[in-house]
């Protein structure tokens, strides 16, 4: 797709997702959020398609590549990316963003994204990790087409 076509499609989807955020206090301005959501989506799709050396990306690496938005705002960006992916019937690509270090798993915020079912939000740690692993497999199958 051409750049303008992708932008129009992204704008349409973003408008839908902002609609589902009615009543939610946003920390980033709409334009800033849209910029980082677009950047994060593009980077995560590269990771999902296997175009990187690793199958995951750390929060730090993602923020560095995007040039922001900073630790206090990354959860808002990833939540919006998750909303867009869910609205389009795709797996939650944000599952590929992990902590650097010992556990190499998603952060606390992943378990509270708006589109994650309550059954997962309230599940045991074992069930959460099982869900996460299955979601990663779904991502790689979907984007590896």
Structure, described:
The chain contains 6 helices and 2 strands. It has a two-stranded parallel ribbon. The chain has helices at 3-19, 30-48, 59-66, 74-87, 118-121, 125-143, and strands spanning 57-58, 97-98. Helix 1 (3-19) crosses helix 4, helix 2 (30-48) crosses helix 3 (59-66) and helix 2 crosses helix 4 (74-87). The protein has 145 residues and is mostly helical.
Task: Provide the spatial order of strands within the biggest beta sheet.
Answer: 1-2
Q: Give the proportion of residues in helices.
A: 55-70%
Percent strand equals under 5%
Could you tell me how far the N terminus lies from the C terminus, measured between alpha carbons in angstroms? 17 Å
Report the strand count.
Answer: 2
Provide the residue-averaged pLDDT: 85
Shape: globular
pLDDT < 50 stretches: 1-16, 18-23
Order of helices and strands: HHEHHEHH
> How many distinct helices?
6
Radius of gyration: 15 Å
State the major sheet.
Answer: 2 strands, parallel
User: From the helix content, strand content and strand pairing, which structural class follows?
Assistant: mainly alpha
Task: State the main characteristics.
mainly alpha, 145 residues, disordered N terminus
Task: Describe how the helices and strands are arranged.
Elements: H1 3-19, H2 30-48, E1 57-58, H3 59-66, H4 74-87, E2 97-98, H5 118-121, H6 125-143
Helix pairs in contact: 1-4, 2-3, 2-4
Offer a quick outline of the entry.
This protein has helices at residues 3-19, 30-48, 59-66, 74-87, 118-121, 125-143, and strands spanning 57-58, 97-98. The chain has 145 residues and is mainly alpha-helical.
């Amino acid at each position: 797709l051409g750049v303008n076509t992708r932008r129009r499609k992204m704008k349409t989807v973003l408008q839908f997702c902002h609609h589902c955020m009615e009543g939610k206090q946003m920390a980033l301005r709409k334009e800033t959020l849209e910029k980082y959501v677009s950047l994060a989506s593009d980077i995560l799709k590269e990771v999902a398609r296997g175009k990187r050396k690793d199958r995951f990306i750390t929060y730090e690496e993602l923020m560095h590549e995007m040039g922001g938005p900073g630790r206090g705002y990354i959860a808002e960006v990833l939540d919006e990316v998750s909303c867009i992916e869910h609205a389009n019937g795709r797996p939650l690509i944000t599952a590929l963003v992990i902590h650097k270090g010992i556990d190499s798993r998603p952060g606390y915020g992943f378990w509270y994204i708006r589109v994650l079912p309550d059954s997962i939000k309230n599940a045991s740690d074992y069930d959460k990790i099982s869900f996460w692993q299955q979601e990663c497999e779904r991502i790689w199958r979907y984007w590896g087409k």
